[in-house]
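Quick board copy: two proteins, each given as sequence then tokens.
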Amino acid sequence: MIEQRRQFVRQALAKGANLSALCRQFGITRKTGRLWRERARTEGSAALRERSRRPLTSPHRLQEEEVCQLVLLKSAWPHWGPKKIAQLYRESTDRPLSVSSCHRVLKACGLVALRKRRVRRPASVSVAAVVPRQPNDVWTIDFKGWWRTRDGQRCEPLTVRDAFSRYVLAAHVPADARTETIQREIDRLFRAHGLPKVIKTDNGVPFACPRSPRGLSRLAAGWVALGIQLEHSRPAHPQDNGGHERMHRDIEAEVAAHAQVDAAAQQAALEIWRQEHNHLRPHERLHGRRPAELYAPSPRLLPPAKPELDYGVGYLPRLVNSTGAISYRGKLVHLSAVFAGWHVGLRLRDELTVEVWFSYLLVGTINLHSRRFDSAPSRSVKAPALAA
């Protein structure tokens, strides 16, 4: 290409040269031919090389101050991507900025990590799940995998999240994992935010007990008594609670990766992260909004005292004693210790079978011939429907 231009210029600069004929011979326009001839005449043959078409000035080009602002935002939240950083920049400066421009600047500054290409696998068949349509339809509860603080203490936060708004209600490090300790923390959330319609957990302690009727634990039995429906993910299927697991990944990268000196400092770091997650971080699934913009407390309030279960007409109430047994027709029938202190409702199904209900759950049957209690399956096939 350069040699052809030089050949054209040599002939165009010759005395008596016909520029129009030369342009037709070399397949170029007269405008281009005159440009090449003038460049060679004033700057020499070196000026015939291809030049950049990049404009000398751009009215939309980011200035140094703006680039520094993006770098500062990325440094403050290193795990946030260009979409979130670009939105924060637009909100803080009231200036337009595209996600592609933000990505280009951050990549040029070495602040964008290249992600490995994920291998897409066919999705596994999941159980039917409740779809939240407003705040407090579904709360998800789980323990984040543990790590140690710098003084050697084990840190395993209990996390509670509203599935609709993505609002994190708690990221609390309990003193232990006993049922009473976890119940106190959940009751605190009930008093502060009201009651959800559904609570979704895994099948681990203290949320479930595979040996008890319907897989209920003492903690879950208290939720059922409050009228809260239960949903459990399948064993060894964390994708059934994928949103909660994704939140745990953020905690792992932004909190657990920077272990604090002790439990108190670690709890403070978790609370700072929770506030940023709820009030500062834009969420793509929420169309750039923050969870705090969507969340509102539940109108269903925690009763001031332990609720009395009223089963109505057709049911015979019986109080479960401390060992998990009830008295029926002069004999003790053992149900489960998870119902201790609560009333169950007995309803005659036929002449040999009595149904045992706990709140809205059929937890098993009593065979009147053998006086034996047979518990219901621990899992229901169909997910519960949300009440209007």
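And the next:
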Amino acid sequence: MALAATKSSRRTASRARRRQQLIDATMKSIARKGMSSVTLGDVAREAGLSQGIVNLHFKSKDNLLTETLTCLADEYKLQFDAALEKAGPRPADKLRALIELDLRPSICDPQKIAVWFAFWGEVKSRPTYRRICDQFDCYYDEVIAGLCEAIIEEGKYGGVFAEATAEALGAMTNGLWLSCLISPRSWDRKRATDAVDSYLRGVFPKHFPS
């Protein structure tokens, strides 16, 4: 019984590793060729596997792409939640940690950004992609807006609105990601961070002093 359980556990782990290998290959293929041009054969070649293995694990391109988007969103959420917890109780520290996360190399990476934008470009015609992206965006927006609201209350900032501030921060992040994607060689992480810091100092000067 113990031997059978061990073998079953190994098969499960091996299957999970193979699926992740194929998802990683899908991200690389999308970043290189674009979503519409990617085929299961491209993914198989990128992973160094047969197309039959891709079919065995995902059955279709649609399934593979959906799993890839889910994996990308889950990976971000894990890092997002970890950054929140590690930052401590102060809302300003939490907000700063999330801004730093969005510009961290593991997140703000041209390949991953290319994949995000590829999926965002498909949400109008793909309800499944829309659902995954909407869940991701709503969670992100609610947390950022909640932190902004807490900072506004702490600092008694008049004329500052949490949702508008959160939208501005989100727009800045998307713009900086796009700049990183379009001009990766000239894009500078420190300048990007300084740009967001400048905005935060203007909106919340008591919490983000010069």
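Board note added afterward: The mean pLDDT is 90.
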